[in-house]
Amino acid sequence: xxLFTLDPRDRTPIYAxxxxxxxxxxxxxxLAAGAQLPTVRQLAVELRINxxxxxxxxxxxxxxxxxxxxxxxxxxxxxxxxxxQPKRDRDRRLTAFVTRMLADAAAAGFSARELxxxxxxxxxGD
Length: 126
Prior knowledge:
Blueprint: H1 14-27, H2 40-47, H3 51-63, E1 67-70, E2 74-77, H4 87-107, H5 112-123
Antiparallel strand pairs: 1-2
Helix pairs in contact: 1-3, 2-3
């Protein structure tokens, strides 16, 4: 079974489908930290796409710290499932978390300032 699949009927560009597939495989644990990805050439042949497309797709997660490339060895997963999520998804989840936290604090009778003060005190040792 292939690690990644592409749908030529999907309007999403091939490179975007592949990048989403890589991130989803990491986020779901199908690719764990330290796992080696197929080489650019192997994946291009397997998916029947241009090797330059695969190289482009591997480049973005490398710059984001999700993958690392070891010269002469290959590309490896270097992040946790949470880190593999696209930044906009991560930012959206963080904003939702903070909104819930502020609502819970207000319902318990605490102000945002009190919450921030406690958070600042708790993180000073980090």
